[in-house]
Write a structure and sequence with these properties.
Structural class: alpha+beta
Strand content: 25-35%
Number of helices: 2
Number of strands: 8
Helix content: 25-40%
Strand order of the largest sheet: 1-2-3-4-5-6-7-8
Radius of gyration: 39 Å
Distance between the termini: 118 Å
């Protein structure tokens, strides 16, 4: 009888231990499943954040590209301006070629006569213009004869913006060809970082556009 009691006791505790171990295993399996779900959720969140960051970078690049296209489009200083000396300028530049006075150009610079824009760069803030004829006070082709008809003169005009105002400087002028004016070195006293300072336009003064009239 005693042996039977001991056997039943052992059997009971063995069954209880088996059930407990089974429950523990089930709980452990459930815990592993929860951990896997948490890791999967974290991975999805990470990928979502990465995708959002990537979309933000794409939008930023698109904005920069749009800004670049705008800067490479029409001339930045298009308009009718009055400078600090009281002179009036009508300026228009476009990437499209237009014909003015039978001269193909990218636009015009009108002040004390009309000059024709050969090309311009909104990033470097420089434009190149030409005349139709030589001025009466200079010879551009090197023959020392002033004011010849149908002899173009080429000049380089630079601009900067300080605060709300544009300044321009014609640092080199009346050259005989576009290549010559394009490759001309800047004067040593050309200082676009300080256009307000007298003499910083190659020894001359920068003109300041004080009012836009259009």
């Amino acid at each position: 009888m005693r042996k039977l009691t001991i056997f039943i006791t052992i059997l009971f505790f063995g069954f209880f231990g088996f059930v407990k171990c089974s429950n523990m295993a089930t709980q452990k399996e459930g815990s592993l499943d929860s951990d896997a779900e948490a890791l999967l959720l974290l991975d999805n969140l990470t990928k979502t954040n990465e995708l959002a960051n990537l979309n933000g970078q794409i939008n930023n690049l698109q904005t920069q590209l749009n800004n670049l296209n705008n800067r490479l489009g029409e001339l930045e200083i298009n308009g009718i301006w009055k400078d600090n000396f009281g002179s009036i300028y009508e300026i228009y530049g476009s990437t499209n070629t237009i014909v003015i006075d039978n001269i193909p150009s990218k636009g015009y610079w009108k002040s004390f006569g009309t000059r024709y824009i050969v090309t311009y760069d909104n990033i470097k803030k420089v434009l190149y213009v030409r005349t139709k004829d030589e001025p009466s006070w200079d010879s551009c082709d090197g023959d020392n004869i002033n004011g010849e008809s149908n002899v173009p003169c080429f000049s380089r005009i630079n601009w900067v913006k300080v605060g709300n105002f544009y300044y321009y400087c014609e640092d080199t002028f009346n050259k005989g060809s576009f290549e010559e004016i394009k490759n001309a070195p800047y004067p040593t006293n050309y200082k676009p970082e300080t256009p307000e300072v007298r003499g910083s336009c190659g020894g001359f003064t920068w003109s300041k556009f004080v009012q836009k009239l259009d």
